[in-house]
């Protein structure tokens, strides 16, 4: 969409289907060039002045239509589409997709195996908490994980509500083998802020880069 016009994705915005498809085609080309097999299909915002409850049905229908179109297009490229719930309590009050429960229900209605849940634990904690059970419940749908500490949205070892060593072990126990995206705002320098990752590797007996010391 057009960020300067207040748009944050178009997939669930009625009347913007043509623009969504145009943006998707461009995203696929970029993804192919950089070798990225996953694309975040952003739902978008409830239109200004509209009542969320009144437009919910139309927005869901638009979302399902666009997701089916996207899934079929992405399947031709062996790519996965991702949908991400973004909290509407702090980050974006007008964003349409807000909880993993809502996302899971929509993915079930869409019925395409190459559409997955992009679960950002920052947003999930703010909207619902209960992270252990939510990860276990929605794990079969998860295609990507993102992290940030709550409420400051900084590094995972910064002061906050989430116990990331526990959450990382839980993800491992569930069999998660994908990337964990660090979608946080560093409190200071980016490289200095990555000290938490080096410390985590050391506690696990790993070297920088996550390789085992025993195999080096």
Most strands sheet: 5 strands, parallel
Fill in the CATH topology. Answer: TIM Barrel
CATH homologous superfamily annotation: Divalent-metal-dependent TIM barrel enzymes
3D shape: globular
Q: Report strand %.
A: 5-15%
Computed CA radius of gyration, to the nearest angstrom: 18 Å
On the 0 to 100 scale, the average pLDDT is 94
Strand order of the largest sheet: 1-2-3-4-5
Number of strands: 5
Poorly predicted ranges: none
Order of helices and strands: HEHEHEHHEHEHH
- The count of domains is 1
**Oligomer state of the chains in this structure:** single chain
Separation of the first and last Cα atoms: 47 Å
Helical stretch count?
A: 8
CATH class: Alpha Beta
Helix content: 40-55%
Describe the structure.
The chain is an alpha/beta fold. The chain has one domain: TIM Barrel (Alpha-Beta Barrel), CATH 3.20.20.150. It is 43% helix and 10% strand. The protein contains eight helices and five strands. The protein has helices spanning 17-34, 52-76, 100-110, 121-127, 131-138, 164-174, 190-193, 195-203; strands at residues 38-40, 80-83, 115-120, 142-147, 180-182. It has a five-stranded parallel sheet with strand order 1-2-3-4-5. The protein is globular. 27% of the residues are buried. The model has no long low-confidence stretch (mean pLDDT 94).
């Amino acid at each position: 969409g057009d960020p300067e016009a207040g748009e944050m994705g178009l997939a669930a915005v009625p009347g913007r289907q043509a623009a969504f498809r145009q943006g998707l085609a461009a995203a696929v080309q970029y993804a192919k060039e950089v070798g990225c097999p996953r694309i975040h299909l952003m739902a978008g915002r409830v239109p200004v002045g509209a009542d969320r409850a009144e437009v919910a049905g139309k927005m869901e229908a638009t979302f399902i239509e666009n997701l089916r179109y996207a899934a079929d297009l992405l399947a031709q490229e062996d790519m996965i589409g991702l949908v991400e719930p973004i909290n509407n309590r702090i980050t974006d009050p007008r964003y349409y997709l807000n909880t993993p429960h809502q996302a899971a229900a929509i993915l079930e209605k869409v019925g395409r195996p190459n559409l997955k849940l992009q679960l950002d634990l920052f947003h999930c904690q703010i909207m619902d908490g209960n992270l252990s059970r939510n990860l276990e419940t929605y794990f079969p749908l998860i295609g990507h994980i993102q992290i940030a500490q709550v409420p400051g949205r900084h590094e995972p070892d910064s002061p906050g509500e989430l116990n990331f060593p526990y959450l990382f072990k839980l993800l491992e126990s569930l069999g998660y083998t994908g990337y964990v995206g660090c979608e946080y705002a560093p409190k200071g320098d980016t490289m200095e802020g990555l000290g938490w990752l080096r410390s985590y590797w050391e506690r696990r007996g790993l070297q920088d880069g996550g390789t085992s010391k025993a195999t080096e």
